Amino acid sequence: MKDQTDIPALMAEIGARAKAAAAELAHASAERKHAALIAAADAVWTRRDEIISANAKDMEFGRQKGLTDAMMDRLRLDEGRIQGIVDGLRTVAEQKDPVGDTIAEWDMPSGLRIRRVRTPLGVVGVIYESRPNVTADAGALCLKAGNAVILRGGSESFHSSAAIHACLVEGLKAANLPEDAVQRVPTRDRAAVSEMLQMTGTIDVIVPRGGKGLVGLVQREARVPVFAHLEGICHVYVDKSADPDKARAVVLNAKTRRTGICGSAECLLVHRDIAETLGQQIVDDLIAAGVEVRARGLKGSVEAADSDFGTEFLDMKIAAKVVDDIDEAIAHIREFGSSHTEAILTEDAEAVARFFERVDSAIVMHNASTQFADGGEFGMGAEIGIATGKMHARGPVGAEQLTSFKYLVVGDGTLRP
Amino acid sequence: MKDQTDIPALMAEIGARAKAAAAELAHASAERKHAALIAAADAVWTRRDEIISANAKDMEFGRQKGLTDAMMDRLRLDEGRIQGIVDGLRTVAEQKDPVGDTIAEWDMPSGLRIRRVRTPLGVVGVIYESRPNVTADAGALCLKAGNAVILRGGSESFHSSAAIHACLVEGLKAANLPEDAVQRVPTRDRAAVSEMLQMTGTIDVIVPRGGKGLVGLVQREARVPVFAHLEGICHVYVDKSADPDKARAVVLNAKTRRTGICGSAECLLVHRDIAETLGQQIVDDLIAAGVEVRARGLKGSVEAADSDFGTEFLDMKIAAKVVDDIDEAIAHIREFGSSHTEAILTEDAEAVARFFERVDSAIVMHNASTQFADGGEFGMGAEIGIATGKMHARGPVGAEQLTSFKYLVVGDGTLRP
């Protein structure tokens, strides 16, 4: 989609404004940021009819464009979902302000006292698809961490995002913070996305939220650092020492609670010693729940193909395989996983220790459902995304991980010999 | 410089070996890594004559190539400097092992216990110029943090680096760790550098060590994340409430202790109220010490040109300027600084607080010499470099900042509602 605007000029201006706002925000008080978020939450609730009308335009556009039911569902806003947005803003507002926090502090023999304190990252770019609530979540988390943000929502949620964005700006104004702290790219032109990915002088990090197509594009093309996960190919390994009741319940929850989220289990690994007993029971449970089990070494719905391992189904489907021991499970995860979330189900502490030590995914779980892979469930209030890279942020990314740090060093006329 | 080797194939092989070694190293015990470093230190001392002979070849090559005296000095190894390398290896060995450290730990209402623990980053690439000791420092820090490292030393230090590298490998063997944990690119062909910068699938981070030419090239060309600083344009601001004795001593130390290091002061900012008294005294001190002061608003050696501000002299030269107040000093630093290290000299706590809050450099100091900007002086044992970016690492980069983290989550059959 193209329009008449000079995109590079537009983005350069947005970038310059974001940088100026970031410099101011960096030393804005915690109270003022809190006030802005509360005022934004109030504005979203007060202006809910306006937001729902804007959303109706997007829904109409979506219908004409022939969006899938799943996409239409992600796009849709009603009073309940707007209440969710309001709650999200309030939750982030009440979180601890990370800026200025002392991370570490120590004295040196030279007489220097060194303190490492959190600072904002600077400017965050968020590129997302149809969910309009990302506008509020991402805007709120960036603001909390003292960062300016440039939001580039999907063309499907254009009007809804604009209406929510207006409420965030209202919050900023109410708290006397720079309006440019939360900017929205006011065009559907895709050239704006390409431009953002190259803005190394302005944007400190890009967070893409959406399907594999979008995330892959951003990861390939961005010159700016990226916090993202391409896929969530989450594994659950049922050890020979698993508790049968816990294991059956956890696997069912990990696969079926919601199949469309990145923390949904996509592959079941079962220890050979319990494959015919507990393992088969779990597979039967899954089939009974309506899951298509693509199995190898187990009686499933169908026989697994090689390509089923390492596939993110995001559906009522799961790959399943018998492994000889925990090391084969770990090796399988290393080969086919996406470094997102993996779980071991066992009562054997040694097996847990080995799995925790050797599986290098962002989140490694014991006797818990992979569906807990979520910033809210980690106590972060919200998340701007989940990262599977190893640089800077990893796992659910909340306000704290949207910060950097600096060293404050105090001497008393201290000279280096 | 070119040779006959197929560089992409060579680097792909080195990369694959590094990845395999990293997977093993990630769960190597602290004891074993310690043993490898101690054995490497012993080997460097035992084989010092061999290293000095290798260095003689490099010195001969350097003379033929017409290296400057400063470069020749950086290249030269003698028994004293080898003792320094040995001490460095031992210091890193005795540092706390960061891998597995719990960074944070908390419980959630769901019943989950969440722990954030340090993990190695993976594979580090180090690209450096003439100093052969970087081979030992970088190799040791990477190993300490459980990372595999690919070392690409300058062609000037080719033989010296090879000899030191052999000692590191001896240490790895003695501790029964994979030899490929510390690899050296065995060619002077510059194509190897270009190749490293693109190895996103293998190398997790690149650390360039050297002049502005090398660092700029790496920052421009790398697709792999980079920890670096392009320049150290460090400022010292003498506030109106500075203690005269401390201020005079600190400025002199900050400029003249060593002029060729990145923490050397390059610009003096003086508050208008004390410009003619303490300010002029400091300028006179500097001139008396042989420093060329390029001054504006003060009587210096010469009048400052616009281009003197924001210049990294790395020499007995300094720019100096009178500012109206602390805010002008902060604005000057924001415009001309390189986010490396800045100091305020004052006895006024409010001025310190303002400077600490508003100057966003990696290191911000009060009443201390900027020459303290160094990993050793920060208690890190050594440093692989100093970073001025805001992603992941910042300031002196020691073993701890060469790590990532993961979340370990413990439940008891815990399901997400």
TrEMBL record, chains A, B:
Residues 15-285 form the Aldehyde dehydrogenase domain. PROSITE patterns: PROA. Pathway: Amino-acid biosynthesis; L-proline biosynthesis; L-glutamate 5-semialdehyde from L-glutamate: step 2/2. GO terms for cellular component: cytoplasm. Its EC number is 1.2.1.41. It comes from the Bacteria. GO terms for biological process: L-proline biosynthetic process. It is found in: Cytoplasm. Coiled coil: none annotated. InterPro entries: Ald_DH/histidinol_DH, Ald_DH_C, Ald_DH_N, Aldehyde_DH_dom, G-glutamylP_reductase_CS, Glu-5-SA_DH, GPR_dom. It is an enzyme of class 1 (oxidoreductase). It holds the Pfam family Aldedh. It catalyses: L-glutamate 5-semialdehyde + phosphate + NADP(+) = L-glutamyl 5-phosphate + NADPH + H(+). The keyword Cell membrane does not apply. Its main location: cytoplasm. Keywords: Amino-acid biosynthesis, Cytoplasm, NADP, Oxidoreductase, Proline biosynthesis. GO terms for molecular function: glutamate-5-semialdehyde dehydrogenase activity; NADP binding. The keyword Cytoplasm applies. Catalyzes the NADPH-dependent reduction of L-glutamate 5-phosphate into L-glutamate 5-semialdehyde and phosphate. The product spontaneously undergoes cyclization to form 1-pyrroline-5-carboxylate. NCBIfam families: PRK00197.1, proA. Belongs to the gamma-glutamyl phosphate reductase family. This is Gamma-glutamyl phosphate reductase. It comes from Tropicimonas sediminicola. The gene is proA.
